[in-house]
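Hi R.,

Here are the chain sequences for the assembly we discussed:
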Amino acid sequence: MEDVQVVAMLVRRCMAGDAAAWEEIVQTYNRRIYNICYRFAGTADDAQDLTQEVFIKMYRTLSSYDQSKGAFVTWVTTITRNLLVDHFRKTKHDRMTDSIDTTASEHEDSQPLSEQIPDESAPPDARVRQREVSETVHQALGKLSPELRESVILRDLQDMDYKEIAAVLRVPEGTVKSRINRGRAELARLLQRTYRQVM
Amino acid sequence: MPDHTSNGMQCHEFDLLLSDALDGVLSGTGLDRLHAHARTCKTCGTLFEEAEAGRQWLKGLMEVEPPASLVPNILASTMGVDSQRLQVMTRAPQPRVSWWEHVQASYLEPMWAVVRQPRFAMSFGMAFFALSVGLTVAGVKPSDIRSVDLRPSAIKRTYYNTQARVIRYVDNVRPVLELQAALRTIKRNVNPAEPGPSKQQKERKNDTTQQPEQKQERNYSQSGEKLILAGAPLGSSVFDGSKLDPSNPDLPVVSVTTYRRIV
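And here is the predicted structure of the full complex:
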């Protein structure tokens, strides 16, 4: 985890106009932010653009960071999450991720979201298979509702504790836990259904 | 989630403890109660299994690698600079290439790719065939070419030998040329009235206008110039030959020139 004193010093140097300090911050956090954006947005291009936007916003609002209110990583993740929500609203993906098992409201005869994941036969190469499984899980993650998806990403992929997630999402810890449970369960249902079809 | 009590635990409480149980932080009595509730409450039991399975799926997701251009782009968009150090860092390591490999890749391989085309190969074949036939006809043998000494000193010596041969030739020919010139002078002095080529012929030779020569009359019976009077009587008696008078000064004079064909 981050060393609070080191990060505080970096932020101070950066606010004083030290380009090297800002570069160090970018080097330290770009991977984490990119991964959150990639898992949430779904595509590498969107993830890259969003990561860049997050850092631009960070650069402009660095002076608003208050060390006493929380860790720097929580602050960074909060900015990322807020931008992702804005991006989600702009791209109007809400209606597609309301529920995994319900069909799209406009098209009654359309397939359930669980059936929209492509059936991929297992190739002999284990690495290729693992990549395909990862891709399938990634696609299934994209089908979760944004609330469940962000909770699961922060907990299971970014390894944040419930308190930090609650601070980022601005919801009670109990709500975070409930969302994580439901998110995991829906993801499992979706994947079980997908692989049952493959078998 | 339906909220009913089973084995002393409500479904709401189960939901709160489930994540702790899956994370491994719940133990002892709390964990036993949770398992007991999952066994008796079908909804919570299913949730327990599915949440555990979902967690396992997510554990298999690997962290993705950001693109190499991400950090330089961020720095460029925030500070407006793209530091040299970052450029060097993000540049992929290039394998060392020898000069011969570089020449091969840059020049020889593209040239060879062109030469390998059938039409070029055919052209080269024809050129080689024509050259070999030409050399054979000219009597050049490969052994002659092989015996040519191409050392700088040998080339220099060949040059001087050739120069000396040319000078000797000019010296030998000079008396003959001088004798011929003297003979022409004597001949001219002896016969000074010998006409030169006619002026007309000279002019014709010097005519560079590319215009066709004046058409010759095909009248071989007459030579020189001769005036012919062409009569055109005025008035109504045009066809009356008796009224023709050669001495009439009103008649027009037409000049007709004939040339002798020079064979």
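The first strand of chain B starts at residue 5 and ends at 6. The first helix of chain B runs from residue 11 to 23.

Let me know if anything looks off.

Best,
T.
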